[in-house]
Amino acid sequence: MRFFNYIASQWMPSASDRWFPNVNPADTRDIIGEFPRSSAEDVARAVEAARDAFRTWSRTPAPRRGEIIRRAGDIFTRRKDELAAVMTREMGKPLFETKGDIQEAIDTAYYSATETRRLFGYNTPSELPNKLNLSFRMPIGVCGIITAWNFPIAVPSWKIFPALAAGNTVVWKPSDDAPHSAVVFAEILEEAGVPPGVFNVVHGDAEAGAALVEHPDVRVVAFTGSTATGTRIAERCGALNKKVSLEMGGKNAVIIMDDADLDLALDGVLWGAFGTTGQRCTATSRLILHAPIHDRFLDMLSERARSLRIGSGLEADTQMGPVINQRQCDKILGYIRIGQEEGARLIIGGNRLTSGNFAHGYFIEPTIFAGVQPHMRIWREEIFGPVLSVARADSFEHAIALANDSEYGLSSAIYTRSVEYAFAAMRDIEAGITYVNAPTIGAEAHMPFGGIKNTGNGHREGGWTVFDIFTEWKTVYVDFSGRLQRAQIDTAAE
Ligand code: NAD
């Protein structure tokens, strides 16, 4: 079956008639369909449609735009089960997780719709008499949205709904590892009443993404993906004077102190490290155990991780699905080899599963390394798979230093019953997000989301802060004095 780009409310193939297959990572014999491998020409068509639609959409009263976005949330709710199956089939995570992914988009739709009744600017007193100072948030224009595959609906929704709510139009280049979910996203926005050209989808790989970044009529680029790709995009946006928001890699640490509720921590670490098969930007990939509980917790964790049920995400009792593709499978197995060569202790896992039901998928065992030292690559580099690196900390200060010894700074967590440790960690951990007595994953739509260091470039999605990405400020001075008043000069003369 062939799927198409969505441009100006029309479903169309790529101008170059090139296609790529979309494959089920749990069973590579299952080909979901072929999708257009788009070129700069297709991107230009979509951007043109978005540019043409901007004038009318940006002048539509914001709460009216909000009504359409709210309807999209309703339709996502109605199609949740069906879309979850589409998503699981193409990217592998279990159905309960893909339903959560869609719920996040529903929450974001309702949140963004509600914000269309606010979109606050601010007013201040003027320094001159009979003069009024106002400021407004203005839509910017065409937003180019480029996303990864691990949250095929939630992550794009964090960008698309606020961008549309603020009055922008959108061209979205979804990941070529999860394009079917994007097709359903477009169907839903069309049914919700988004006018032609306001929202467009162009499928493809780096070529289409790069063309979107380069197009002169794209004024904002909002990207989620690896730090390597994001950095390249930021360089181009710098040269082209475009606004760019980047959500990139992570290497998130959990600290467990000796006074923690270890059963609670155990559930949190299992979910954080092996949920989505470790393929989350916020996945727990480093575990820092306070020395007094190190051995005990490691035993508890290994036992539970060994018993995780691995399989196709479409099966009801699966707890951990496959990894996304051959490239990623090779990369993860490569890091497992590196960890062993570096001298870390492989506690459990380490293998690809190839027999029986696993024969045609990309399945890797939950893997835990202990004795990991901060100089090791498995401690420093994002693996993006079910691999957890464990280090021992002698003290709270040592634990914080280990957590902060990273080029990334997205999520983090501490398990402790101590108020002193908890508040010091909130202050001292270098990350955009810190959880206390909860895992590193679990963002909510109405709170700022993003990271510091090589995870981001200072923007935050989610919450009110996302509108800083998708709006520009307009400042207006209204002088009703009837005479020339010169700021900075006539004030002094009064
Ligand atoms: P990726 O960087 O390979 O690709 C991301 C997107 O960029 C894809 O749509 C891809 O086609 C496109 N792309 C690739 N090269 C491009 C180029 N030169 N110009 C323009 N677009 C280009 O990332 P991935 O493997 O799809 O996703 C995994 C990464 O995403 C991990 O590093 C993960 O941490 C990160 N991620 C971050 C967040 C976050 O919110 N911080 C969320 C999810 C995933």
Describe the structure.
This protein is of the alpha/beta class and 494 residues long. The chain has 2 domains: 5-248 and 456-476, Aldehyde Dehydrogenase, Chain A, domain 1 (3-Layer(aba) Sandwich), CATH 3.40.605; 252-436, Aldehyde Dehydrogenase, Chain A, domain 2. 40% of the residues lie in helices and 21% in strands. The chain has helices at residues 40-59, 62-78, 80-91, 95-115, 154-165, 179-192, 206-214, 227-240, 262-274, 291-306, 326-342, 377-380, 396-404, 419-428, 466-470, 490-493; strands at 5-7, 10-12, 19-23, 31-36, 124-125, 131-139, 142-146, 169-173, 199-201, 218-224, 243-247, 252-256, 284-290, 345-348, 352-353, 363-364, 367-370, 387-393, 408-409, 412-415, 435-436, 452-453, 471-479. The chain has a 7-stranded mixed β-sheet with strand order 14-17-18-13-12-20-21, sandwiched between helices. Helix 1 crosses helix 7 (206-214). The model has no long low-confidence stretch (mean pLDDT 97). Bound molecules: nicotinamide-adenine-dinucleotide.
